[in-house]
Amino acid sequence: MNRVEALEQIITFGGFREEAFGELVNFAFDCEVELFEVNNDILEVVLKKYLSNFISSDELEEWANFIECRDDVNYAKVEGFIYALANPELMGKITDNKIYKMLEVLSAS
To answer: Are 32 and 43 in contact (CB under 8 A)?
Structure first.
């Protein structure tokens, strides 16, 4: 599994996500190129995974923090959403209602 495939598995909660974390440690942490983009579609899929109880609020927060700390991930299109999810102590706890509102905003854009 290469770096891009590992990032995709981790960010999309793919079937090989745990293996991808193991593979990602084989690559340097710093990267001068953004290799994977988190867009509205990916964010929508992940938010729906939360609403369907596939992932917990803690996992959603960890996911957003993972994205924020990566130099090899471009999340500019969804930066505000990622910030809110990564910082529930500043932006308010992650709740179903908040996620439904995020999905409404995403579908309107």
So the answer is: no
pTM of the model: 0.91
Contacts 24+ apart (CB under 8 A), 62-66: 63/11, 63/13, 66/10, 66/11
Amino acid at 23: E
Place of tokens 């990602």: 24
60-107 tens-digit pLDDT: 999 999 999 998 999 999 999 999 999 998 888 999 999 999 999 999
Query: Per residue in 21-30, is it b (16+ CB within 10 Å) or e — as a string?
Result: eebbeeeeee
The rounded Cα 55 to chain-centroid distance in angstroms is 12
| DSSP 8-state assignment for residue 1 | -
